[in-house]
Write a structure and sequence with these properties.
This protein has about 325 residues and is mostly helical. The protein folds into two domains: about 120 residues, no CATH class; about 190 residues, no CATH class. Helices cover about 55% and strands about 0% of the residues. The chain has a two-stranded antiparallel sheet with strand order 1-4. The longest helix has 29 residues. The protein is globular, with a radius of gyration of 22 Å.
Length: about 325
C-alpha cells in the first residue's frame, strides 16, 4: 500500500505549510519545523514520511512459501524502528518516535517493503532495459555532450522551432533523459571496471546490507554478485537524484554537486511527460528557450564536475613505452 493508499485510510491532523512540501509524493518534513511542532504534528509528519517510502509487503512484494515467505526483490525488509530513528534521531524526541514505531508494528510488522515503483506516479515510465553496456570510461559524458549538441541543433534550425511550446517541452524532457543515461552509464561502467567500487557499492548500500545470507550461500552469492547488482541497477529511477547522489558518493568516493535546481527540473519533466504539459492543478507548464539553455548548462556542468572528480579518483594508467 503506497502513500496515497495509506492516506485514504488514515486521518491525522492537518499540517501547516511550514512542515514541508505537503503535495510531494515523496514528502520529507522540514527539520526546523518538526523540532518545535506539537507531539501530534510530529507523529503525523513522521507517519507521512514513512508511508511515502514503505508499504505492507502484501501489496506488491512476491510471496513464495517454499522460499520462506515474501521475496523482497526491491530491497528490504525494513524495520520502522531502524528507519524512523535513522531519519529523525536528534530531531524528534525518542519517546515520540517510539510511539509511532509501535503503531507501525501493530499496523503491519517489523518487515516493510519499499513502495513499489509502480505506486509512484512520476516513475511510471520505468524501463527495465534502461541501463546499457558501457566499455569506455569516457562514453557516458561523451554521449551526454553529443545528445545536448543534437538538441541545440534542433532548436537552432528555425526561429519558429524555438517558439514552439511542444518542442521546448520535448527538449526539456530529452535533456533530463540524457542526464539519466549519463548517471546510469557511469555507475554501470565503474562497477565493472573497479572491484573496489563494486565492494563499496555492496557494503555501503542499505538494500544490500539488509539482505539475509546463510553460510552455505556465501560462494554462490559471491559468484552471482555482479549479476545481482546489475538487476538492482535496472530497478533504479535515475532521475531520482536524491537517491542516486548518495549512491555515487558511497560507491565512487567522489563529491557530487548540489542537485536542488536539477530536482526542480525533474519535477517539470514529470508534468511534461505524465500530464501532457500541465501541472497537478491544471496549469500549463511554461518552458522558454532560455529555460532550455539554462538546463543544458546545468546538466553539462553537473556531469563535467562528476567526470572530472572521477578522473582524479581513478587516474588513467600511463602507457608504457
Amino acid at each position: 500500500m503506497g502513500f496515497n493508499d495509506h492516506s485514504r485510510h488514515h486521518s491525522g491532523p492537518d499540517l501547516p505549510s511550514e512542515a514541508g512540501d505537503l503535495e510531494s509524493i515523496d514528502f520529507d518534513p522540514n527539520d526546523d519545523w518538526i523540532k518545535n511542532a506539537t507531539e501530534e504534528e510530529q507523529m503525523e509528519a513522521m507517519r507521512r514520511w514513512f508511508y511515502a517510502r514503505y508499504e505492507d509487503p502484501a501489496h506488491s512484494t512476491p510471496y513464495n512459501g517454499r522460499e520462506g515467505g515474501f521475496q523482497f526483490i526491491w530491497g528490504g525488509p525494513y524495520d520502522p524502528d531502524e528507519e524512523i530513528q535513522e531519519r529523525f534521531s536528534g530531531v524528534v524526541p525518542y519517546e515520540v518516535m517510539r510511539s509511532l514505531i509501535e503503531d507501525l508494528w501493530q499496523e503491519g510488522s517489523d518487515q516493510w517493503a519499499p513502495v513499489h515503483p509502480d505506486d509512484l506516479d512520476y516513475d511510471e515510465d520505468y524501463d527495465e532495459e534502461f541501463v546499457s553496456r558501457v566499455d569506455d570510461r569516457d562514453e557516458p559524458v561523451r554521449y551526454l555532450r553529443s545528445r545536448i549538441s543534437q538538441i541545440e541543433a534542433v532548436l537552432a534550425s528555425d526561429a519558429n522551432v524555438r517558439k514552439s511550446d511542444l518542442v521546448l517541452q520535448m527538449a526539456h524532457g530529452s535533456i533530463i533523459a540524457a542526464l539519466e543515461a549519463f548517471l546510469a552509464d557511469t555507475m554501470t561502467y565503474w562497477l565493472k571496471a573497479e572491484k573496489k567500487v563494486l565492494r563499496d557499492f555492496v557494503s555501503r548500500n542499505k538494500d544490500f546490507k539488509k539482505r539475509s545470507l546463510t553460510l552455505n550461500e556465501v560462494f554462490d552469492r559471491f559468484e552471482q554478485l555482479e549479476s545481482e547488482v546489475g538487476v538492482y541497477l535496472q530497478d533504479q529511477m535515475w532521475h531520482r537524484l536524491d537517491k542516486i547522489k548518495p549512491m555515487l558518493i558511497a560507491s565512487l568516493g567522489i563529491a557530487v554537486p548540489e542537485i536542488g535546481d536539477l530536482m526542480k527540473a525533474v519535477l517539470v519533466r514529470h508534468d511534461i511527460v505524465h500530464r501532457a504539459g500541465r501541472t497537478r492543478d491544471g496549469k500549463l507548464v511554461t518552458v522558454t528557450f532560455g529555460d532550455v539553455k539554462q538546463l543544458q548548462d546545468q546538466v553539462l556542468n553537473f556531469a563535467n564536475e562528476i567526470a572530472e572528480d572521477i578522473a582524479r579518483k581513478f587516474p588513467r594508467t600511463p602507457i608504457k613505452s
